[in-house]
Amino acid sequence: MEVAYSFAGLVVGFVVGLTGIGGGALMTPILIVVFGIAPVVAVSTDLLYAAITKFGGMWSYARKKMVHWKVVGLLLAGSIPGSLLTLNYLKGLEALESIEHLMNMTLGVSLVLTSIAVFLRNRIREKALSLENHPLADRARRIRPYATVLMGLLLGALVTLSSVGAGALGTAMLILLYPRMLMPGIVGTDLVHAVVLTSVAGAGHYTMGNVDLSLLLYLLIGSLPGVFLGSHVGVRLSPKVMQPIMGSILFAIGLRFVLAG
């Protein structure tokens, strides 16, 4: 079984390196559906898995000064309280069945929203840019910091419950709120926020005894070379081909969890 966990890490790491999408969105469903791991353990372990695997990319963007730290701060002002409140709520649920039902449903909704974000990312950017000269654009820019905090609050709850949403969904929200921000800056900003958020949420789940450290280790053993291989193959493939494929897969998986819930 240990080899199977590492192989799953290899496959998911390869897909992440290939497309930049699908870390938590693929790993958590695989752990639940393929390996039969309890949702609370799968989500909790995947949060720390995401924090560790994304750290290298975060550091690279930070060194290249492709991170908008003010935006990161606004996101964290919402997402950290959102995560802590969600963890506190989970601690108050005594029945394991209630926790797992909530996590399964949230996972399904998060996957469907993420798939939509993958499909519509370019259209979201085009639409947001077209509204920049709208009469209400100045008012929208004034409330943008508050909208960013609110977006962080939503992501904090979703990610803590499902381990999904910090990547593709966070990127889509940033594109909507900051359409003139260059894509490397959006990716770098989202990556830093995701690492901090998943670290806090994962640490919270760890204190509740939900994290399987041996499972985490085996996943990492497979995923690190997988990301390396996928990133080298990915430069030869068009995003126009890969994004619809990934979006379709995530939508199908999300629908399965929603209907099962």
UniProtKB/TrEMBL annotation:
Its main location: membrane. Pfam families: TauE. It is found in: Cell membrane; Membrane. This is Probable membrane transporter protein. It is a multi-pass membrane protein. Keywords: Cell membrane, Membrane, Transmembrane, Transmembrane helix. The chain crosses the membrane at residues 7-24, 30-50, 71-90, 102-120, 149-176, 182-203, 215-235, 241-259. The keyword Cell membrane applies. GO terms for cellular component: plasma membrane. Belongs to the 4-toluene sulfonate uptake permease (TSUP) (TC 2.A.102) family. It comes from Marinobacterium nitratireducens. The keyword Isomerase does not apply. PANTHER family: MEMBRANE TRANSPORTER PROTEIN MJ0441-RELATED, MEMBRANE TRANSPORTER PROTEIN YJNA-RELATED.
